[in-house]
């Protein structure tokens, strides 16, 4: 008889692994699908200081390794394979994968995440997690009393710049235009803050450093002039926080599950989408805070709700 899973989790970041753990502990048949590496964005984080109960030695990879171990301890199957298509029209959902599998399941938890939009400049990939960050809430504390550069000019960038002033001695906001399009109330606060220096009409051309960020090259869009900003000699480094948007990994589900105008899943507080038996968890859903702790909470809720759905629908 062809196997039908109780739950298939798409994505093995913190939300997906949490969902897999809770579903497996509930004695359901669980498959977690991941197209690349497990862990999502957190595996690029060298230190995890704001996850409740984390020890000083905890890193993103070590935390993910423990999550994977827990999932497998309770019987969840983790498979490296990418999803090509998904049929959600029937009670039994069908997931078609790159390896040619047609996986059948009673419920689906989508935890495909959202990726920070990158600058795509030289040095970015090499120095991510070594001075370059995409999350002020996660990493601001590491730059206490240092100088930082905040890249971006939208509401999120300016809000994060204000947050960074609690830690950094100076925050340079780099914006590609000559005026901000963020809410006027936020712009007024930014301009009134003595810790914030505004750099207009500029984009990041290159980020340099040997193991850590040591300098930043900016290009003035109007004049074409290149300016290299060096770290203070006593500091030896500074932070570069990039806030130029996120890209939700939802392309596969467009037209099949309801999304908001930015491409994020719309769910209720129980992680339910508009499709019965389909749940979304973590950074991929519309929410106000994207952190490991909120992702794992989403995953746990989704798994518990999937169990209740299956009991009601298939018993």
TrEMBL record:
Keywords carried by this UniProt record: FAD, Flavoprotein, Oxidoreductase, Redox-active center
Domain FAD/NAD(P)-binding: 5-299
Example GO molecular function: thioredoxin-disulfide reductase (NADPH) activity
GO biological process: removal of superoxide radicals
Flavoprotein recorded as keyword: yes
Keyword Flavoprotein: yes
Superkingdom classification of source: Bacteria
Enzyme Commission code(s) on record: 1.8.1.9
Gene3D superfamilies: FAD/NAD(P)-binding domain
Pfam family, one: Pyr_redox_2
Cofactor(s) needed by this chain: FAD
Gene Ontology cellular-component terms listed: cytoplasm
Catalyzed chemical reaction(s): [thioredoxin]-dithiol + NADP(+) = [thioredoxin]-disulfide + NADPH + H(+)
InterPro entries given in the database record: FAD/NAD-bd_sf (IPR036188), FAD/NAD-binding_dom (IPR023753), Ferredoxin-NADP_redctase_2 (IPR050097), Thioredox_Rdtase (IPR005982)
Family in the record: Belongs to the class-II pyridine nucleotide-disulfide oxidoreductase family.
Assembly information from the UniProt record: Homodimer.
Protein name, entry field: Thioredoxin reductase
Organism of this sequence: Helicovermis profundi
Gene coding for it: trxB
């Amino acid at each position: 008889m062809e196997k039908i899973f109780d739950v298939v989790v798409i994505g093995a970041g913190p939300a997906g692994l949490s969902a897999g753990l809770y579903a497996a502990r509930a004695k359901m048949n669980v498959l977690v699908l991941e197209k690349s590496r497990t862990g999502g964005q957190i595996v690029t984080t060298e230190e995890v200081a704001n996850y409740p109960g984390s020890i000083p030695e905890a890193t993103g990879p070590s935390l993910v390794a423990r999550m994977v171990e827990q999932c497998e301890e309770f019987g969840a199957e983790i498979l490296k394979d990418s999803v090509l298509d998904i049929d959600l029209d029937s009670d039994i959902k069908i997931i078609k994968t790159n390896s040619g599998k047609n996986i059948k399941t009673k419920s689906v938890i989508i935890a495909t995440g959202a990726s920070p939009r990158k600058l795509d400049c030289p040095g970015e990939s090499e120095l991510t997690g070594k001075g370059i960050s995409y999350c002020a809430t996660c990493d601001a504390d590491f730059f206490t009393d240092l100088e930082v550069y905040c890249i971006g000019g939208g509401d999120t960038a300016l809000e994060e710049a204000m947050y960074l002033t609690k830690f950094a001695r100076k925050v340079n906001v780099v914006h590609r235009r000559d005026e901000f399009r963020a809410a006027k109330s936020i712009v007024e606060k930014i301009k009134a803050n003595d810790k914030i220096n505004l750099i207009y009409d500029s984009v990041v051309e290159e980020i340099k450093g040997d193991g850590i960020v040591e300098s930043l090259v900016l290009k003035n869009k109007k004049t074409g002039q290149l300016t290299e900003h060096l770290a203070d000699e006593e500091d030896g480094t500074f932070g570069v926080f990039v806030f130029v948007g996120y890209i939700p990994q939802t392309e596969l589900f467009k037209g099949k599950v309801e999304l908001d105008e930015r491409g994020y899943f719309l769910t209720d507080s129980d992680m339910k989408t508009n499709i019965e038996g389909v749940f979304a968890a973590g950074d991929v859903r519309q929410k106000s805070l994207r952190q490991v702790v909120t992702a794992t909470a989403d995953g746990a809720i989704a798994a518990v709700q999937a169990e209740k759905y299956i009991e009601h629908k298939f018993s």
